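User: Here's a structure from my thesis project, written as structure tokens. My advisor, Dr. K., wants to see whether a designed sequence matches the one we expressed. Can you design one independently, without my sequence as a hint?
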């Protein structure tokens, strides 16, 4: 069976994709420098899969580490390793350009030298900027509202041009809002510090680590006044990566939205999480957060047509798996690994 290299494979999306690829029969190698992930996840991947994890510790910016990973006999790469915090990118744009843009090019140079020409790229719905037409389709214009988004738009352009110039097989997956955790509660989203993102913030309120959710504005042009987003269960997102690789192994490149097509508001997410926890989770309405757009949700048609992909998990599954995960984390298995 083919062997896939996951750069950033110890991270949130990467670790769930690791499990999905192994279940699909792929061999997998992880390259990760643990700059934004917990080394303990490796032991939990061993527990989940019942097999050792082939790990190379290092950054995509280190040629020797990338060469060591590619020497495993790699048939394709899923490139997760990147910086991904919008706010941080405003404060440290050069760090984001170096890791995200130079990192992709450094990786592709080593891939080309090793004759590995299949790559799935972790992109984001943020490349649509501040859209005014919904739902979002892949042919819509790209723009950036942050240095982070600029790096993702630029990387998509690099991949597009590389595929025109050489025989690269490229899969670009534009994630909407990944949430939730593996049903085992052994892997999940593990943000450092106070989370920027909605679900992990609500999870910390539910755990009593944060006092209340502040809703960033309720005067938007949506039914309940709070922003609409297209939340997708990380298990669905992981499966989309398997289907993307299957297509690349047949030489079928693609650029696809990976979302459910169903918008959910902040208050709806809060209500769904509260229902799963079974008690009130305090929240207040605060001012708008700079940079937020009122609506962001996918037209998932193309992923269905090209990959046969459809999201299967609903909002309650997303909330329940998140709640199970944060409780398991707090129960200390993380320190036992
Ligand atoms: C969702 C909604 C907030 C926290 C970001 C990045 C995107 C991608 C996913 C990397 C918004 C509201 C949030 C809170 C709130 N990251 N909210 N109170 O902004 O859609 O996307 O994460 O690829 O690039 O931009 O996700 O979860 O931060 O916010 O009211 O404490 O929840 O205002 O409307 P977002 P989010």
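Assistant: Designed independently from the structure alone:
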């Amino acid at each position: 069976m083919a062997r896939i290299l996951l750069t950033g494979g110890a991270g949130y999306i990467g670790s769930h994709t690791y499990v999905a690829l192994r279940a699909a029969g792929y061999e997998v190698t992880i390259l990760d420098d643990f700059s934004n992930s917990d080394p303990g996840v490796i032991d939990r991947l061993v527990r989940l899969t019942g097999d050792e994890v082939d790990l190379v510790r290092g950054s995509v910016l280190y040629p020797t580490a990338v060469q060591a990973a590619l020497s495993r006999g790699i048939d394709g790469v899923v490139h997760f390793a990147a910086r991904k915090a919008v706010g941080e990118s405003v404060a440290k744009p050069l760090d984001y350009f170096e890791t995200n843009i130079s990192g992709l090019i450094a990786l592709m140079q080593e891939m080309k030298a090793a004759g590995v020409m299949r790559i799935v790229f972790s992109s984001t719905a943020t490349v649509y900027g501040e859209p005014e037409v919904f739902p979002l389709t892949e042919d819509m214009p790209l723009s950036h509202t942050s240095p982070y988004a600029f790096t993702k738009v630029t990387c998509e352009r690099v991949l597009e041009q590389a595929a025109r110039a050489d025989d690269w097989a490229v899969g670009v997956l534009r994630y909407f809002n990944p949430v939730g955790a593996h049903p085992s509660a052994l892997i999940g989203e593990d943000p450092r510090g106070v989370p920027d993102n909605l679900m992990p913030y609500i999870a910390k309120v539910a755990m009593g680590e944060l006092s209340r959710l502040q809703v960033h504005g309720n005067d938007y042009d949506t039914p309940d006044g709070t922003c609409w987003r297209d939340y997708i269960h990380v298990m669905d997102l992981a499966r989309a990566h398997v289907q993307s690789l299957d297509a690349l192994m047949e030489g079928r490149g693609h650029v696809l939205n990976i979302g459910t097509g169903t918008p959910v508001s902040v208050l709806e997410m809060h209500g769904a999480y509260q229902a799963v926890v079974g008690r009130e989770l305090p929240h207040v309405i605060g001012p708008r957060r700079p940079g937020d757009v009122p609506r962001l949700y996918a037209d998932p048609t193309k992923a269905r047509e090209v990959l046969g992909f459809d999201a299967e998990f609903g909002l309650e599954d997303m909330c329940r798996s998140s709640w199970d995960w944060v409780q398991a984390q707090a129960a200390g298995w993380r320190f036992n690994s």
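When you compare it with your expressed construct, this may help: Residues 84, 86, 124, 126, 177, 196-198, 201, 213-216, 227, 229, 266, 289, 292, 296 surround WQD (CB under 6 Å).
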